[in-house]
Amino acid sequence: MTRPRKPEDPLRWPVPCARCRQHHKTVARWPDGGICGYCYQQAKRTKGTCACGHQGVLPGLIDEQPACRQCSGVRLNVDCEACGAEDELHSGGRCWSCVLATVVDDVLTNPSTGAIATNLIPLATALKSMKRANSGITWIQQKHVTAFLRNLAVAPTITHEVFDELPDSRTREYVRGLLIEHGVLPRRDELRTRYESWSAQALDRVNNHEDRDIIRRYIRWHHLRRMNQMDEVSRGTFLRAKQQVTVAIDLLNWLADHGTSLDGLTQAHLDLWQAEGPTTRRIAEHFLKWAIKAKAVPAGLTILSHRRGTSAKLDKTGQDEALSRVLNANEQIEARDQAAAILVLVFGQQAERIAQLTWEDVTVTEELVTVQLGSINIALPNPLDEPWRELAENPTHGLTAAHPNSNWVFTGHFPGKHINPGHLTQRLTRIFSTRAARLGTLHELTKLAPVAIIAETLGYSPTTIERHATDSAAAYAQYIATRVHAKRVSVPQS
User: Fold this and answer.
1) In whole angstroms, how far apart are CA 21 and each of 5, 40, 195, 455, 491?
2) Using one digit for the tens of pLDDT, what is the confidence trace for 398-450?
3) Which of 41, 72, 125, 139 is most buried when burial is the number of CB atoms within 10 A of its CB?
């Protein structure tokens, strides 16, 4: 990433840079004039094919087009003494890639054997081949990362179980992800594993021993059983399971504080517990239904259910204004944020589903850009297609070792993973409320087309779209139209 420029200083540097025309310190004099430090750095990193056919660094300019050193007359040392390639040099006459290779060998070599362990060679190869070598050096040379990799180099075995025994940290999970992505460790359902670890710790928050056994059964026979039936646990399932167990523990601890247990639970207890706390206590409805079915509480007890349709919706005017800000951001909003925002504002998509899009769901041709959200490819007219074209033309997944062959449209921080939906929501929240925008869009769409078509096109369940259609009176409008049509047909022709 290009470093931000300091404000120019015409008084201190009266002669502007020959390239950017801004007043910064001149660090080189080339045939086209004095060059500032910012343009000098950019020139060293400009690669391509010169008009003469030379491939490599193109630091010069001829008729505003990048040119090689020989054609432009620019004197610049970009010849790596180690590999011989033309590239920006780091130190000792070596390019960043060669320095990165030395750094990787240093941290992953086992001192007792003088070599890198066989099972770590794929990781070493991936790190050395990073296109953005400067990022690799910066990451590895952090003290905690260096220490972690050195310990990994001398580990007798490398398994998920060995990693699980290490202190929990972002570095541990990032390195685990790299090892999975490059075939050192097998893939596993991380959210299910995280839930198992979280739930084991959650049991410590239960005050009563008998209640702890109830929660253990609830976790094992309700949530974990459902997760074990899934090919892969979704983020939504993971978060809902945590929330439902948390509220269940809250209820049992409250009962214990009031001198009763679950088998002594009455409707009066439930009513008082709900009245005293936030509306999130209604989530205990899920635990109560399970407890009744498991015969842990008397039948007939109820909790006031969560009311749907009460969330705020962004009206049509607000949606149009938000979309205008997104499309006219003038590079102030990244292309991937623009692309995601369009799917929320125009098609009412959830962040979790947007994050899971792959390039198999997106088709970009010279004439058309389409995105498959449900069972149908939706064409994006101009200017809605522009952010998607930019994403396709400038992929970033191959720059580091984290996403060498990723097919995700929105790659995430952790290796091989798509962007975290929560992080995506936070990014978009700087522009508009994603929940209000999504609900407002669905509200408006149900006025324009039948429920079944919208559900199939956008990938929602018909029940969900029907609820929004009812909220917007679309279903009622269709009913009136049908009645009017029926009356016209029934009138006898004279």
Assistant:
1) 13, 13, 56, 54, 79
2) 677 888 778 899 988 888 888 888 899 999 998 888 888 888 888 777 776 66
3) 72
d(CA 55, CA 68): 8
pTM of the model: 0.71
277 — pLDDT class (breaks 50, 70, 90): confident
476: left (phi over 0), alpha (psi -120 to 50) or beta: alpha
Q: At what angle do helices 316-327 and 335-347 cross, to 10 degrees?
A: 160
What is the distance between the alpha carbons of residues 239 and 197, in angstroms, rounded to a whole number? 14
Six-digit token string for 408: 């995700």
What per-residue confidence (pLDDT) applies to 153? 95
Q: Look-up: residue for tokens 């009812």? A: 470
Q: How far is Cα 154 from Cα 113, in angstroms, rounded to an integer?
A: 9
Mean pLDDT along residues 116-139: 92
- Contact call for residues 372 and 378 (beta carbons, < 8 A): yes
The tokens for 124 are: 């070493």
Q: Residue 197's CB: how many other CB atoms inside 10 A?
A: 12
Q: Which whole number is the average pLDDT over 82-97?
A: 93
**CA 34/CA 32 separation, integer angstroms:** 7
Amino acid in position 261: S
- Which residue ranges make up each domain of the chain? 1-76, 96-181, 190-293, 316-445, 446-494
Say what the pLDDT of residue 476 is: 43
In CATH terms, the fold of domain 316-445 is hpI Integrase; Chain A (1.10.443)
CA distance 36 to 26: 4
Count Cα neighbours of 165 within 13 Å in the Cβ-side half-sphere: 6
Helix ranges restricted to H, 182-266: 190-202, 209-218, 225-228, 235-257
Eight-class DSSP state of 62: E
- Token reading at 244: 């439902």
Closest CA to 306 of 279, 329, 331, 326: 279
Whether 220 contacts 258, CB under 8 Å: no
